[in-house]
Structures are given as structure tokens and as C-alpha cells.
Amino acid sequence: MVRITEQLIRKRSEHNELIIGTLEELSLHQEDIECIEHIGSWCRELKILFLQSNLISRIENVHKLKKLEYLNLAVNNIERIENLEGLESLNKLDLTLNFVGELTSVETLRGNYNLRELYLTGNPCTDYAGYRDYVICALPQLESLDGVEITRTDRLKASKDFRANRARIVQLELKHRIDRDEQKVRVEESLRVQEESVKDLDEEQRATQFWQQKSEHCPETRIMMAKYAKKGRERPGAGVGDGEKVPQRTLKLFADCGRPYSLNEAKIKFEFLDEDDRYELNLHIYKFLDTSCIEVDAQPNYIRATIKGKVFQLALKDEIKTDESKCKRSTTTGQMLIVMPKLNPQNISFREPEVYSKVRRDAAAKTDLKGTVDYKNIIKQGGKSAEINEDEIPPLI
């Protein structure tokens, strides 16, 4: 059984400088955790909690998380919805692919007035006749169920036969409970027989026989699968031939011809803007990560940022002026903006300075250009004054 320890939480809080008291997001997925503990006391500021793909059988010890907005418990062994009344800010609850058969337990969520999204896809209760209508009427604050928007028409339709629908679902729950009790006995006997049949085999042969046999879809089987999967990972040389070593992946930044690769080993979000005269790169650095843990290297044809040893590199189409490139970081969001002027800007439009434009507009305003132009009388016609003096005309060359 994997326990939730302080060391495990700090390991998953690198983005918060290993401080768990102010942690707002925590991911403990795929850890084979069987029990929720300590999180409510150690991480009171949590807003997002990921606990999917574990072996949790009961929802508990989360009532102190008053600021929690999103709880993900998908792919666990939960059979009943409970102990969530204290989550005042809960907005989204994901219970996909669990074993919830007691559908009426959703009524415990009526006090969670901020709940807007609920996911129960893959649970036995979704096979009950009238499942969706019942949940819609039982939780009037919901806006979406299993990813499908709830309309006003859906609510009106569900409210008409709510009592009869609920009575029918209670009967289906009783039948599911009887089937579940029988399944527990049947699976327990099957596991006992299997253990007797493989007691003389080594670990590898036991695992091979387990993975080849048919099994029922239930929490007990999921626990056994996790057990054998863990043994397979711990077995020396698992997945590698005899005498072979596990190849270590090497980070390659450049092609054989010298062309830089673009890669995001740090797995951070970013925005890249290609202007006519410059490149702009906005990196979503973790807010509480100290700037001393970040190194930025601007080269003529690529930009590289090393974040706690993780490389983010972006190849550039045009060369940049490395000596004029600037890097700034926001003290509020933690994001880092890198501005890189291009060496040979393209399609640059030079606009007239505002001072000259103002002078030209003032001069035009003083000139009276109103009315039509009398182009016929620009040169006076007739009379002696209009005669051409040929002596004044210069000779043609």
C-alpha cells in the first residue's frame, strides 16, 4: 500500500519551490494510493487536486479543503459518493471509470452549491434506466453531466417523474448490491484457487499466468493488476534482454548538419509572435520559481531557455541581433518575455514623423483651395500683352 507522505507531496510540488502550505495545484496520479490522508491538513490552499489512476476505495479526509475547485478521482475503486459536503468551492468533480453503484449517494452533493460539472461515465449506475433524469433533478445546480450540457427542457422533463424514477433506481441499487456481494465471494474464491495453483511457480511464471487468465471487472481485480504490475516494474532487468542495459536517452539539440532542433523538455506553455522586425517569445514560467534557476541563451538562429536543467529551444527562421535582444520577467505572473530584433527586417513601412505631418496639415489648412479652377484664363488670351516675344525664347540646341 502506497501512503501519502510529506516527501511525496513535496516531490510533486517543484513548481511551488517545494512549499506545500501555499500549494494550489497537486497531482498524485498513478501512485497506487489506496487511501486519501493528510492532504486536507497540509495543503489547505489547494484549488486543483488530481488523484486519478490510483486504488482509492473511499472518499475521505478532504473536508478541510474549502478552496478546492476541481477534484479528479477518475479510474479508482470508489463505490459510493460521500464526505464531500465540506468542499464549499467545488466546481468540478470527475469520478469516471469507478464502481459507483449507489446512485442515490449523489444527493449528498446538494449542499455543494458551486458544483457545475459532474462526470460519472463508466460507473455501473450509468446503466440504470432514468439515470440522467434522476441526477439532473437531484442536483439542480449542475450545468453539465458527463460532458453534456443540461438544458431547461431537460430539467422540466426530469422533474415530472422524479419520485417514480427515484423509487425505480432504489430497486436497481438493491439488485446491484446483491450482485456485488455475490461477486466479492466469487472473486475471492477465484483468487484463492489461483494462489494455490501457482504457489510452486516463480514470480515471472505467476505473472504470466495471471495476465493470461480471464477476470471480472471489479475493485479486487484492479488491486491485483496493480500488484502484479508493480512486481513487474521492480523485477531486475524487466523489459530488457539478458545482459542488456537500459539505453539512456540523450538529449539532441542539433541535427548532424548543424541545424538547431525545436524542443520543449521543460513542458511549459508559450506563445511565439513573428513580426516583420522582431520575434517575441512569451514563456509561462512557474510563478514561484526563482529567476536564478533560469538561463537564457540567444543565438543568431535559435533561442534557448534552460529551466531547472530542462531545455526549451526554438529554431528561428530569420537571424536575430543577439546583442540587442532583451529578456524581461513579470513579478506578478512569473511569465518571461524575450524580444529578439531581426537582423534583416522585412516589409518595414517607414511612416512620416508626426511633427512633419502636423506642419503639412497646418499649411494645407491655411491655403484657400475652395471652389473650381478656371484653367482657361490661367494665361490671358488676346491683346498685345499676349503676343510672344521671340527674342526672349532661347535658341534650340
Automatic annotation (TrEMBL):
Whether Cytoplasm counts among this entry's keywords is yes
Does the keyword section mention Cytoplasm? yes
Q: Which UniProt keywords apply?
A: Cell projection, Cilium, Cytoplasm, Leucine-rich repeat, Repeat
Q: Which GO terms describe its cellular component?
A: cilium; cytoplasm
Report domain Dynein axonemal assembly factor 11-like CS positions. Answer: 242-342
InterPro entries under this entry? Answer: CS_DNAAF11_C, Leu-rich_rpt, LRR_dom_sf
Location(s) in or outside the cell? Cell projection, Cilium; Cytoplasm
Q: What is its main location?
A: other
Q: Give the record's family classification.
A: Belongs to the tilB family.
**Listed name of the protein:** Dynein axonemal assembly factor 11-like CS domain-containing protein
Protein species of origin: Culex pipiens pipiens
